[in-house]
Design goal:
Helix content is 35%, strand content 17%. It is of the alpha/beta class.
């Protein structure tokens, strides 16, 4: 019988986090702010003291276009980190923190799987060290201050028709997407339309993950545009005195969280912005600290390489001054068969032709990553149903692009299952081949940036916009033209049609909305129907999560 992720995690022999920090990273015990025996935050004073150390090599884990068949990007990130340590390298991983919404919804947790997990798995997937709670309450403090500002008629006078700041909660709750607040009586304020986003979609989360330190975070919060006055002039969080008290709520959260893998290797798990409405990467603070502490750092970016890797390169690396040394594209035979036209219930049957057809998707991702000047390899996340002929087809498709592909068995074998992959990743990272360049320059016009992403990364013909969007592009160009573009579209296709699998062409991407994230420092271009507050499925995962008679959590995965 195959053990569940939570059963495997529960059987782990964890070391005290202070021991992991000292033995693996050389962090003294007094620099760790412990949350029990197996979780700790690394003090910002200690991190500031690392500034003069040289940087290690930065390795990105990304993936083909995701499908319901699964790819295993986080699992591969963990397995690769363990594999690097097994072959004698000083390495660690950097992951995002999971949101409670998906844990109790449909997607499940985000701590890896099988024998490639970060632990304590239950804590990481639930309340962890309270970072998301701090981000959510800081966001909602600004919401409360904004409505209080309106109630008292304070200057600057906010036009209640042009409030741009919602509220947040870290749960999938479709009933909160669109609401009316301040109902009841005069004492409750001025009724207006409002709504909730999930915490990971908050601009506070994006700011949290892109900030260099607490001071930078406070300055970025001050630049958030919360609405406009009747003259259509922007009103910021600083105008209503938000940054000070919000930073007080975030002062502890800003320090990276140190945990360990099942093989007792170090991991930072810190921050977790949406990979659609934001950039989908862990914090800059954690990544930069890891680069000072280790020779190799493996991190991941959300969804497939068209969204995750592009945003990692064009937003996170650009804004943080990071230069990646290598990348790993995760693929599965199952997912490639779906891209080749096979239905999910037929994936267990060998179909080499479908694998070959689906490899068009992988090839486009390979070419895209290499276009940034980053050398790449492919990790085939092995499933028991994969046949030798199917695996060989994937290898041959990658090799035809001049890229090596490795069968990785980390889910079943932990770091042992990625040793060959790890050795090759080191070769790539140490080769000096990397010549990283973002896709477009800062001074390219905003509209052209969006067009460039669609043409060069998605393989489409360009963007389409109605008159209002064209006018909005021009309006934003005046003051924010140097910002990168954060594309918000379906993760299930290069196009905006989630059913267009493989490597579609001949399509355009309609931009239906442009959102200014002034504090984060990017413009969100919304294409298609993107939800910033998910709903629960008909049968949510929450239905099967409970405490057993021993007080242990069951059903979490």
């Amino acid at each position: 019988m195959v053990k569940s992720d939570i059963e495997i995690a529960r059987e782990a022999t964890m070391k005290p986090v202070a021991e992991v920090g000292a033995e693996k990273l050389g962090i003294p015990a007094d620099a760790l702010l412990q949350y029990g025996p197996h979780k700790a935050k690394v003090s910002m004073d200690y991190i500031d003291g690392l500034a003069d150390r040289p940087n290690g090599k930065l390795i990105l884990t990304t993936a083909i276009t995701p499908t319901p068949a699964g790819e295993g990007k986080t699992t591969t990130t963990v397995g690769l980190g363990d594999g690097l340590n097994r072959i004698g390298k000083k390495a660690m991983i950097c992951l995002r923190e999971p949101s409670l919404g998906p844990c109790f919804g449909m997607k499940g947790g985000a701590a890896g799987g099988g024998y490639a997990q970060v632990v304590p798995m239950e804590d990481i997937n639930l309340h962890f060290t309270g970072d998301f709670h701090a981000i959510g309450i800081a966001h909602n403090l600004l919401s409360a201050m904004l409505d209080n500002h309106i109630y008292w008629g304070n200057e600057p006078a906010i036009d209640v028709r042009r409030v741009a700041w919602k509220r947040v909660v870290d749960m999938n709750d479709r009933a909160l997407r669109q609401i009316v607040n301040s109902l009841g009586a005069v004492g409750n304020g001025f009724p207006r339309e409002d709504g909730f986003d999930i915490v990971v979609a908050s601009e506070i989360m994006a700011i949290f993950c892109l900030s260099k330190n607490l001071k930078d975070m406070q300055e970025r919060i001050g630049r958030i545009v919360v609405g406009q006055n009747r003259q259509r002039e922007s009103i910021t969080a600083a105008d209503i005195k938000g940054p000070g008290p919000m930073s007080v709520l975030l002062k502890d959260a800003v320090a990276p969280n140190l945990v360990q893998t099942l093989e007792n290797n170090p991991a930072f798990v810190h921050g977790g912005p949406f990979a659609n409405i934001a950039h989908g990467c862990n914090t800059v603070i954690a990544t930069k600290a890891a680069l000072k502490l280790c020779d190799y750092v493996v991190t991941e970016a959300g969804f497939g390489a068209d969204l995750g890797a592009e945003k990692f390169f064009d937003i996170k690396c650009r804004l943080a001054g990071l230069r990646p040394d290598a990348a790993v594209i995760v693929a599965t035979v199952r997912a490639l068969k779906m891209h080749g036209g096979v239905a999910k219930d037929e994936l267990g049957t060998e179909n080499v032709d479908a694998v070959k057809a689906g490899c068009d998707n992988m090839i486009r991702h390979i070419r895209n990553v290499r276009s940034f000047g980053v050398p790449v390899t492919v990790s085939i996340n092995n499933f028991i149903t994969d046949t030798p002929a199917e695996l060989q087809a994937v290898k041959e498709a990658a090799e035809a692009e001049g890229v090596k592909a490795f069968i990785a068995t980390h889910w079943a074998d932990g770091g042992k299952g990625t040793e060959d992959l790890a050795a090759h990743v080191c070769e790539l990272a140490d080769s000096g081949e990397a010549d990283f360049q973002p896709l477009y320059p800062d001074d390219m016009p905003l509209r052209d940036k969006a067009e460039t992403i669609v043409k060069k990364i998605y393989g489409g013909d360009g963007i389409t916009c109605d008159g209002a969007i064209e006018a909005r592009f021009k309006e934003l160009q005046a003051d924010y033209g140097h910002f990168p573009i954060c594309m918000a579209k379906t993760q299930y296709s290069f196009s905006t049609d989630p059913d267009a699998k493989g490597a579609p062409s001949g399509f355009t991407v309609p931009i239906r909305e442009l959102r200014l994230s002034n504090g984060a420092g990017f413009i969100v271009a919304v294409a298609g129907a993107i939800m910033t507050m998910p709903g629960l499925p008909r049968v949510p995962a929450a239905n099967n999560i409970y405490l057993n008679d021993d007080g242990q959590i069951e059903g979490l995965f």
